[in-house]
Amino acid sequence: MAFEPTSRYAGLKTATVPSPDGRGGTREVTYVLRRFVLPPPASPALARHTVVQGDRLDTITARYLGDPLQFWRICDAESAMDPFELTAEPGRTLVVPVPQPAQALQPLPRE
């Protein structure tokens, strides 16, 4: 499974699981293992954007980061599970983080 280098899934480990194929057989399904997100304070701000009526996350991201597909970086900085909630209310201030390399963050080892 290959992802673009700018994808939030770039560099993450994958696993496979057998799954019914709908014809009485099975097929291997590949999936991405869990992606750990840094807490918001760990992402330095490039800019702050105040949402206005009609704003969309992709256009905000294109404006500040030059790539509308990087909207997930703002979602991570805002700890948002639903990207649409970020632009639903005009007046909200969004943190546009300084882009960090997309990488898999490993959980801390248990002691």
Describe the structure.
The chain is α+β, with helices and mostly antiparallel strands and 111 residues long. The protein folds into 2 domains: 1-36, no CATH class; 40-97, Membrane-bound Lytic Murein Transglycosylase D, Chain A (Roll), CATH 3.10.350. The chain is 14% helix and 23% strand. It is built from 2 helices and 4 strands, in the order βββααβ. It has helices spanning 57-65, 71-77; strands spanning 14-20, 26-32, 45-50, 93-97. Strands 1-2 form a two-stranded antiparallel sheet. Strands 3-4 form a two-stranded antiparallel ribbon. It is elongated and about 55 Å long. Residues 103-111 have low confidence and may be disordered.
| Share of helix, binned | 10-25%
How many domain regions?
A: 2
Tally of separate helices = 2
Q: Per CATH, which architecture of the largest domain?
A: Roll
Task: Indicate the radius of gyration in whole angstroms.
Answer: 17 Å
First-residue to last-residue Cα separation: 33 Å
Mean pLDDT: 83
For the biggest sheet, the summary is: 2 strands, antiparallel
Lateral arrangement of strands in the main beta sheet: 1-2
Helix vs. strand class:
alpha+beta
Coarse morphology: elongated
Q: What's the CATH class of the largest domain, please?
A: Alpha Beta
Beta fraction:
15-25%
- Pick out the low-confidence regions: 103-111
CATH topology name of the largest domain: Membrane-bound Lytic Murein Transglycosylase D, Chain A
Q: Identify the CATH homologous superfamily of the largest domain.
A: LysM domain
Order of helices and strands: EEEHHE
Number of strands: 4
